[in-house]
Design brief:
mainly alpha; 15 helices
């Protein structure tokens, strides 16, 4: 016995009659008759749709013919109409549950994605993410400019008075690096520290870096809802921290080694921060200047693009965490670190420029 058959058994066996809106005092026999008529006139199309959906669920979309594929949306809309009628006249609950389940399954088959999870991810990273980034060029420049302003300001402030370092850099980020640190300590414990091993490098430290950086990057995007001002301030503050570190290392004669140590992962990490800031500025722009749409409509249209940028940026931060947590200390020569950073920068540039020809020729990305 199917769920559809069970939906009416209680009525046929003398169970409680359903309440029909506006006719609660109508004779019981008339209620049962109405329910039976409702089922008899539509049951065949329900069963046909159920059979098609089951075949697709078990054997895939290729298990149905072209004619059946064209017929499926019509059967789905018919079942949806039946569900609407059934709810309005309060038919048996089992039947309502059956129709709700059937229409939900049919919706996923008719209108659901036609690609697998891995195919969808492949589409996202090969076309969606680079295309979304290319559309926010001015936002990227503004976000990058805010970061550079912070770096310059942080460097000048700490270079003039190193005591400002402790006021700018949080304790959990300074990790003992401050006005009292020596050049030898920086070389031994930071710039050329020995590799800590696979577990500490790739699992413990890389995981910490990824979580911390992801929170900051997503916050940069989320603050875009407040007209973008907090996003820019956060980008400036991130620059202040970096500028403070540059000043400490420069005054101890290890500026070049520090930039090499930073660049090996900084190309990817700072790039992700800038992109998240750009996504926040995109949201701010569409809220402040919605154009011919309402603010809510404009946010719905362009919010997807911003979310794609943030999703891809988080993936970049994962890569940066792996590089910073493990590979950075494996590359112990400053010149090699610069070379690694240069190759990384070229690869990211080529990645984000991929697909431009398809866009220029009007092909979908």
């Amino acid at each position: 016995m199917t769920m559809l058959d069970a939906g009416f058994r209680g009525q046929d066996a003398g169970g409680p009659a359903p309440t029909i809106i506006g006719t609660s005092l109508e004779p019981r026999a008339n209620v049962v008759l109405r329910s039976a008529e409702f089922r008899r006139g539509r049951e065949e199309s329900w069963r046909e749709l159920d059979d098609l959906v089951q075949r697709v669920e078990k054997r895939g979309i290729r298990s149905v013919s072209a004619d059946e594929l064209q017929k499926m949306p019509l059967l789905y809309r018919s079942a949806l109409s039946s569900l609407s009628v059934a709810r309005s006249i309060a038919l048996d609950r089992n039947l309502l549950r059956y129709l709700e389940g059937l229409t939900l399954r049919a919706y996923l088959v008719v209108y659901g994605p036609r690609t697998s999870l891995f195919a969808g991810l492949g589409q996202f990273f090969t076309r969606g993410f680079p295309a979304a980034v290319r559309k926010v060029g001015w936002h990227i420049l503004i976000s990058f400019a805010a970061l550079v302003i912070g770096i310059v300001a942080g460097y000048l402030i700490v270079a003039s008075d190193e005591e400002w370092f402790n006021a700018i850099v949080p304790d959990d980020l300074s990790d003992g690096r401050g006005p009292t640190v020596t050049a030898e300590e920086l070389r031994r414990t930071e710039l050329f520290a020995p590799w800590p091993g696979f577990k500490d490098a790739f699992i413990v430290f890389a995981n910490y870096l990824f979580r911390h950086n992801s929170i900051v990057a997503i916050l940069s995007f989320g603050l875009g809802f407040m007209a973008g001002v907090p996003t820019l301030l956060l980008m400036v503050y991130q620059g202040l921290i970096l500028g403070a570190f540059i000043a400490i290392h420069a005054k101890r004669g290890v500026f070049v080694d520090f930039i090499g140590w930073l660049s090996i992962h900084g190309v990817t990490e700072l790039g992700a921060f800038v992109l998240c800031g750009a996504a926040g500025l995109l949201v701010a722009e569409k809220i402040l200047f919605p154009g011919r749409y309402t603010r809510l409509e404009s946010l719905a249209i362009h919010g997807k693009q911003a979310a794609i940028i943030v999703g891809g940026s988080v993936a970049m931060l994962f890569i940066a965490g792996i590089i910073e947590g493990g590979f950075r200390q494996l590359v112990g020569v400053t010149s090699w670190r610069f070379a690694f950073a240069g190759v990384t920068a070229v690869l990211w540039f080529l990645y984000f420029m991929s697909g431009r020809k398809e866009e220029q020729h009007g092909l979908p990305t």
